[in-house]
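Cross-check.
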Amino acid sequence: MIERMSPLEIRDRIFELIKSHHMFFSTALPLIASENIVSEAVKQAIISDFGHRYAEGWPGERVYAGCRYIDEVEGITISLFKKLFSAEFVDVRPISGVTANLAVYTAFTTCGDVMMCLSIAKGGHISMGKREFGGTAGAVHGLDIEYFEFDVNEMNIDVDATIRKVKKLEKDNRIPKLIYFGGSVLLFEHPVKELSEFFKTYDSIVGYDAAHVAGLIAGGEFQNPLKEGADVVSMSTHKTFFGPQRGAILSFNKHSEAIKKAVFPGVVSNHHLHTLAGLAIASTEMIAFGKEYAKEVVRTAKKLGESLSSRGFNVLGEAKGFTDSHQLLIDVFE
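Predicted model, tokenized:
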């Protein structure tokens, strides 16, 4: 089709498609848990001149000149994140949740180390996947992946069974170097406190992928992993945290240098400054009304679960109120 069109005609067609996309979603009700929308103020920040600029490195230590105002915006964003998540150290340079996860792998592990996480079938993210599945952890960073044991009745990690599994791994000299809670499906809070105390006896690093629940954590409606024993938290910033699509890492000062080096020059060069500006604005909005927002998100998800169940859908987790997050799981095979 486009082979017979002029560049101007192709441009017009692209704008037509964008308009059609906007019209489609203005009359739709998307139920994709990984999507959200940003405010008009965030949109204004995203289309600023920040998107034309480069800023490699840490604020105040840039490789490029001309970053005076960019540094200040990034510094403000870091301060806002520290307040929202009660974090000692924050890095907002990752450009996605996967990039944030890869930076954590880089900071705390080497190729061949064992990482324990949820399997993809039980709610883990593809970035935690094994090499044979093309997952980031296995295929890109060369980690040896072991899975948490999972209780399908509780829809959560099985603490006792996981402890037994780790003790078996110990006999094979395969103690996990990195533990990763969280993931893509997270109906209920993970047993971070219970298991982190156990894993610390092996000097394992405890991580948590909060991509889906970051906004709920910031709003006080979900567990804060840093307060329950996690050493590091990675996230995206566009799901329940209603910002632009990028990522962030939270941790403690003792891990700051390892994380900073893993992010740059490890996995990020220039870090998409236009969406950084948008994240700064979204962070002010989260502080202003994030508590009310998060509470309403969870209330709505629970109510939707009740309504679907009453209409004959097999909504999982009914005995526990269906969900404590923004997500629902429905068995569509019954």
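The chain has ten helices and nine strands. The mean pLDDT is 96. Passed to J.P. for a second look.
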